[in-house]
Design a protein that fits this description.
Layout lengths: L1 H15 L3 H58 L14 H8 L7 E6 L4 E10 H15 L1 E10 L5 E10 L2
Antiparallel strand pairs: 1-2, 2-4, 3-4
């Protein structure tokens, strides 16, 4: 402690030995340099670190959104295992129109019956693709098959489907 006290005493003696103009200049310089020193040694590095962390958070949020989309795609490809898929605000006819082509199905006619039921006609559909699509509708989106009529198509393995789907929610 005595070394610090000696250093303080030397600085006071040095300052006292200066002229009045030099003292004003030293005081003015101290008023400018001390805040600048505080800013560049404390505030600036903290702001830079905060900005870097904010950028990292945004990057991580974007990666999380991408991962959630990928999870939804994987679950959809597995037939909806793991729970009901998000309909993203789509009404029942729009959901049918959006999902049928994913299973190589062509909707020849679609007739809504109220807000929670739709009648669908599929011509020349692969029997296997039709069943996979129905499974996706039931397990992935919570729809229920109210009625189903299957008749043979023009080629082997091809069928005509006439069905009613109801929203189970």
């Amino acid at each position: 402690m005595s070394a610090l006290t000696d250093l303080k005493q030397q600085a006071q003696n040095w300052y006292a030995s200066k002229s009045a103009a030099d003292k004003r200049a030293l005081t003015l310089m101290a008023l400018v340099l001390v805040p600048a020193l505080i800013y560049f040694t404390l505030v600036f590095p903290l702001q830079r670190a905060r900005n870097n962390l904010s950028a990292d958070v945004l990057k991580q949020e974007a990666e999380l959104a991408t991962m959630q989309e990928n999870v939804a795609r994987v679950l959809a490809s597995r037939g909806g295992a793991g729970g009901k898929l998000d309909r993203a605000g789509r009404r029942l006819p729009q959901l049918i129109s959006d999902t049928a082509p994913q299973f190589n199905l062509i909707v020849s006619r679609l007739q809504p019956r109220g807000d929670n039921e739709v009648q669908i006609w599929l011509e020349d559909a692969s029997f296997d693709d039709g069943l996979r699509w129905l499974h996706q509708m039931e397990t992935g989106y919570g729809l229920q098959v109210a009625s189903l009529n299957i008749s043979s198509g023009k080629a082997s393995g091809m069928v005509k489907l006439q069905l009613k789907l109801k929203d189970g929610t």
